[in-house]
Amino acid sequence: MNIDINNRLHSVCRDRWRSTAPVCMIRGLLCCLLMFCGFGLFLSDAYAAAAADELNCVLCHKYRGLSRIDEAGDFRLYYINKGLFNKGPHKRVQCKDCHADIDKIPHDPAEKVDCTIQCHLTEPSGNEKFTHKPVAEVLAKSVHGTVDKGEEDVQYPEDYPYCTDCHDQPLYRPLSFFKGQAAGVSERGLSRCKTCHQTGDFAEDFYNHVTSRLQKMRVSSEIVKLCAKCHGDEEFQERHGLQGNVVASYWETFHGKAAYFGSDEAPDCIDCHVVYGENVHSIAGRASRASATHEANVSATCRASECHADAGEQIAGYQVHTDYGDPDKYPLQYYMLKFFKYLMAGVLYFFITIIFLELLRRLFPDFSFIKQPEEKRQSTISTAAKQ
User: Fold this and answer.
1) Which residues are bridge partners to 11 per DSSP?
2) Would you say the C-alpha torsion 288, 292, 295, 300 has a positive or negative sign?
3) Domain boundaries, the chain
4) Disulfide: which of 63, 68, 128, 268 matches 223 by Cβ 3.0-4.6 Å?
5) H or E stretch at 122
């Protein structure tokens, strides 16, 4: 009896094994394949991270408190936010490409970064190593250059901006051309890039880089505040012979009010001081014929296609940086402002006085500053009673 049951069980298990064995083998192979792919992706990510950070700089610079007080007494922070860094344009740039003097850990005090050195990236249009040197050459010829037209060093060269004074670590702000997507993101647009560019993160990086260049990286108010770091400093203005606080006068205009309340369409410093369509680093002094704010070019600057395209030549007479507190330079504006201030104060105080007197009359109806004689008062009451 027991032998018969065992034979039956053996035949059932044998039949089930023959039917399920291929499925089990396939599942096992798939599990091994997935584990292998996951391990491969882990190695590739680790390799990519190691390639981007060859010296493992983030090992120390990942700590938020990594800082010191330098010899000049300035606070220096050396913390690197890796998450933000990987969302910016320097994501594929190795640390050593900019900090070329660092070749060991722990390293000696790092030298100032030269933004004009060549990167390991290849500029696609010319198949050459990428560099910011052309931008530096344009900047050197502008009003912010440290060499004047006589090929002599300017006074107070420490006041003139370096790359990092205006450029921090920018973040990509990709455009969105499709409906139903969050502002600044276009996954459907990115999916079209991935139709052909399927290798690695090329599609994401290329898309972010190109679309971020199609718009302003900073809103108007941020650009004005950036320029205000120098042009809003009274000591800076005095050293360089600048008249008036141009930043304060800008905020008093309609353009400044719109920018202050968050409008991205309001013109900022770059929109007015850079010739339309030219490199933003090529700002020239007002006295230069190539300047966008030269008296011969103001009307063309204001009538750019993105601003007052239908305006006439008279728009050049609009005074942007008017100092209402300077009666010598702007007498008409100064005395007009004084007149309207006194007029508004007079009208306001007049009506406040009327309201106050009316309130007294309602609270004290029998009150009078001038007391009438008793006989005249009784006669007035009797006459009123008869009527």
Assistant:
1) none
2) positive
3) 2-52, 344-386
4) 268
5) strand 122-123
Give me the DSSP letters along 205-249. HHHHHHHHTTS-SS-HHHHHHHHHHHHT-HHHHHHTT--S-HHHH
Alpha helices by DSSP H, listed for 232-315, are 234-239, 246-251, 254-260, 269-273, 298-302
Dihedral, CA atoms, 344, 350, 352, 357, nearest 10 degrees?
180
User: In angstroms, rounded to a whole number, what is the distance separating the alpha carbons of residues 63 and 147?
Assistant: 40
DSSP state of 293: T
Q: How far apart are CA 37 and CA 69, in angstroms?
A: 48
State whether the Cα torsion 222-224-227-230 is positive or negative: negative
In one-letter notation, the amino acid at residue 93 is: V
Give SS3 for 76.
strand
pLDDT in tens, the chain (387 residues): 444 544 444 454 455 545 554 545 555 555 555 554 444 444 444 444 444 566 788 888 989 888 888 888 888 888 888 888 877 778 778 888 888 888 888 888 888 888 888 877 787 777 788 888 889 999 988 989 887 666 677 888 888 988 888 887 766 666 666 656 566 667 778 888 888 888 877 788 888 888 877 777 788 899 999 999 999 898 998 888 887 788 988 998 899 999 999 888 889 999 999 998 888 899 998 888 889 999 889 999 999 888 888 888 888 888 888 888 888 888 888 899 899 999 999 999 999 999 998 998 889 887 776 766 666 666 666 666 666
Model pTM above 0.85: no
d(CA 185, CA 212): 11
The DSSP bridge partners found for residue 76 are: 68
